[in-house]
Structures are given as C-alpha cells and as structure tokens.
Amino acid sequence: MASNMSPWEPEFGWEINTGPDHVYREGQTCAFKLVPTADGYQVTYDKDEMDPVWDGVKLTRRGSSRPSWGNRKLDRWTAGLEYAYDKLINNYLLKVDTTTERLEGEIVVDGKHESVTMFLCNDAVSVGTLQPLLVIILRTRFPWSQSRVALQQDGTAHAKPR
Predict the structure, then answer these.
(1) Fewer CB within a 10 Å sphere, N or C end of the chain?
(2) Quick one: pLDDT at residue 15?
(3) What's the domain count of the chain?
C-alpha cells in the first residue's frame, strides 16, 4: 500500500466475497475502490464489477476509533468459512458504537433508500501477514423500527490480491 493511502484504500481495491443482493452478485466479479473526497469516499469500480445502484455513491466518514478485532484471525475467504466469518463478524459488531470509525451513505434500490455502513476491521485476516476486513451492512429500516431483530449475512470484502 502506498504510504499516502489510508487503510480504506488498498492499492487494488476491495473484492466482495459474499453478501446480500446489490452487494454480492453470485458468480460475478464484485470489486470496487474507495476514492477520497473532502468528507469521505466515493465508490468507483470497473464496468460490470458492481451492481449499478452503486454508481456515484458517496460515503461520509464517521467516528474516530476502531475496536480491536480480537485474537482469533480469519483465513482467506472461502465459502467453507462462511460460518466462521459470520460468527467473528457478529462478535466484532457487538463492540461497535457511535464512536467507531465507519463510512455511511445510501444506495437506492427500486426507488427505496437503503442505508450503507462500512466498518474496517484491522488485522482480521491472516494471509501470511495480517490484513483488514471490510464489513458492509445494508438496511432499509433501523433495527428498533422492526418488530423483531434477526441477524443476517451482510457483505465482506478483502483487499484484492496483487
């Protein structure tokens, strides 16, 4: 990673491994970069590498601290590790609060606004060296406005390999 780039900006961008519709596209490349703006980042991607709902999406930086991922590290993503990823991501999300560094924005799907939140988990993935994990959360409603809260798989991404 070039020294002037933040951890949000891996040199080759982010590759999405799994997630809900409009984040992950089964059997297709899902990859993007975060380009710095005055108050956050803009999502950019090569043609056909993301769902078109991401065109021009801007994310605002919020928070200033980043909770520790913890001692248990993840191996590079494979579908067989989905349960481990879910469990450790959910453990991490229990640590976040309003001071946690994150990116926030929205996408519009079929005329409905969906909130996007991205968390950067330091040193979460062990691939010879420790790498960050990007967790992408989409929601159309706030948890407290729903009759019940249920966990569901949100997106994860790793820095694209060189």
Answers:
(1) C
(2) 94
(3) 1
